Automatic annotation (TrEMBL):
Signal peptide: none annotated. The chain crosses the membrane at residues 7-25, 61-94, 114-147, 159-185, 197-217, 258-282, 294-311, 317-333. Pfam families: PMT_2. Keywords: Cell membrane, Glycosyltransferase, Membrane, Transferase, Transmembrane, Transmembrane helix. This is Glycosyltransferase RgtA/B/C/D-like domain-containing protein. GO terms for molecular function: pentosyltransferase activity. One of its GO terms (biological process) is lipopolysaccharide biosynthetic process. It comes from Flavobacterium enshiense DK69. InterPro entries: LipidA_mod_glycosyltrf_83, RgtA/B/C-like. Its main location: membrane. Residues 75-216 form the Glycosyltransferase RgtA/B/C/D-like domain.
């Protein structure tokens, strides 16, 4: 994709990435999912180099595949994955700009995409992470553009490109299909109306070719994602709940799921002044939705209801539909931009506010990344021992520490090995895992074994040596 002069501003995330990566030594790894992407990316690279099978993998395959390919150019795999997220944000911004120009017949978007999407705190921060969110958002947004281009102007080429990108989006983040469904239906109806049956056949074949890596990698479990625990617990009544007990323990949220599902309209982490925008929008005497606004809103609501019925909340899942929120709100945002166009300090102020909120949003990710690095450096001297742990063990594996790992989550232990190590966040276990293996194991070892504390870390993690039974 050629970056035109009007799109140069969208390269700003590259500057932020350079500062974050090389100035603050942040490699985009945190929590558990990022390390799973890292693990499988490296397994794919090993497969291409040695032929050793990479094994099975649960999530969409294309983020680690692209990470693997880029890692041959950038040897540091974590940075390669991080860079894919940054580049995905740039491409997404450019194509969101194109969607707005196409659907509203606008020659200029007045930097609205840059201010309200590219600089959105949660979007900018997730473009710095080794996570698949931005790549999935990118494929979804570009697919929507080409499907809209076909709906608006026809052209079999647009439909074929759209179909290929739909396949990429789906096989990067399965849930993307929920957002893409309305656009696919309209494009399909237009195709049938045009009687372009060969185009339909050719599109199906090319989309199937895109699915080949998924079929090969997941040959035994191609549709296992449909049996994911969240889908099994999917219940429309969850929209009106905020407390859940699942295999992930007890979760208590401030808002019920139906509010969470629409955070992208009003939460400051998405839109700094979202509540103000929403109030002014709803206060308008005449709300006449453009035909494509109706389509955008349909996709947004479908996805919101899908997420809200899952017994879990994670704001990053809403990133996938956020470009459509900006596209939907564009007429209103454009009117505001027109009102304030003569006030030169408004947009610099919004720019600084967005960046400040981004720093605030990114603080927890940076602290977690630092904590994982600190713990890894501290426990490295104990390598070779048995280590009982939970949560943080994924990071230690990802950072290539050699332990005989015993998960406090996977099974309940009746006996613990003498002189083994125990790394645990006691407060988290006691708060979240009532009646589950992590708490049962912690209570067992605490009550029945002598524990020697070796080190305390920030974030309430403690490292113990398990001595003799009491």
């Amino acid at each position: 994709m050629k970056i035109k002069s009007k799109h140069i501003i969208y390269l700003f995330p590259l500057l932020v990435w350079a500062v974050v990566c090389y100035g603050f030594s942040f490699d985009g790894l945190y929590g558990q999912d990022a390390y799973e992407y890292l693990r499988y990316t490296e397994a794919l690279k090993t497969f291409l180099e040695t032929g050793k099978t990479p094994g099975d993998y649960f999530w969409g395959v294309y983020y680690p595949i692209f990470g693997c390919l880029l890692s041959f150019v950038i040897p540091n795999t974590a940075i390669a994955l991080q860079l894919i997220s940054v580049l995905s944000l740039i491409v997404t911004s450019v194509y969101l700009d194109k969607i707005i120009r196409l659907t509203y017949q606008q020659k200029s978007v007045k930097h609205i995409t840059f201010i309200f999407f590219t600089l959105s705190p949660i979007v900018l921060i997730h473009s710095m992470l080794a996570m698949s969110d931005m790549l999935a958002c990118c494929f979804t947004t570009v697919a929507i553009y080409y499907l809209l281009l076909f709906i608006e102007k026809s052209g079999n080429r647009n439909f074929i490109i759209g179909a290929i990108l739909v396949a990429f989006a789906l096989l990067t983040r399965y849930a993307a299909m929920v957002i893409l469904l309305p656009f696919c239906i309209l494009a399909f109806m237009r195709l049938i109306k045009n009687r372009s049956y060969f185009c339909l056949f050719f599109s199906a074949v090319t989309a199937a070719l895109v699915a080949i890596p998924h079929i090969i990698i997941r040959s035994q479990n191609s549709f296992q994602f449909l049996s994911h625990q969240w889908l099994q617990a999917w219940d429309i009544l969850n929209l009106f709940r905020s407390d859940f007990v699942t295999v992930d323990g007890e979760q208590h949220y401030r808002f019920i799921n139906i509010f969470y599902a629409f955070f992208s309209f009003f939460h400051p982490i998405f839109l700094a002044f979202g509540i103000v925008f929403l109030l002014f929008f709803l206060k308008s005497r005449k709300i006449r939705l453009h035909k494509y606004q109706q389509l955008f809103l349909t996709a947004i609501i479908l996805y919101a209801l899908f997420l809200g019925a899952i017994p879990f909340q994670n704001k990053r899942f809403l990133i996938l539909s956020f470009p459509l929120v900006i596209a939907f709100l564009f007429p209103f945002l454009s009117q505001l931009a027109e009102v304030f166009k003569n006030r030169k300090l408004i947009f610099p102020a919004i720019f600084l506010i967005q960046l400040s909120l981004g720093l605030l949003c990114g603080k927890s990710f940076y602290e977690r990344n630092t904590l994982e690095s600190t713990i890894a450096d501290e426990v490295e001297k104990y390598e070779g021992n048995t280590l009982y742990s939970f949560d943080i063990d994924i990071a230690l594996k990802g950072r290539k520490l050699n332990f005989n790992y015993k998960s406090l989550w996977k099974e309940e232990y009746s006996e613990f090995k003498k002189n083994a190590l125990l790394l645990v966040n006691e407060k988290q276990v006691e708060k979240q895992w009532k009646g589950k293996n992590p708490l049962l194991n912690w209570e067992n070892v605490k009550n029945n074994y002598q524990l020697a504390k070796l080190k305390s870390f920030e974030g309430d993690f403690n490292l113990y040596r398990i001595d003799a039974k009491k």
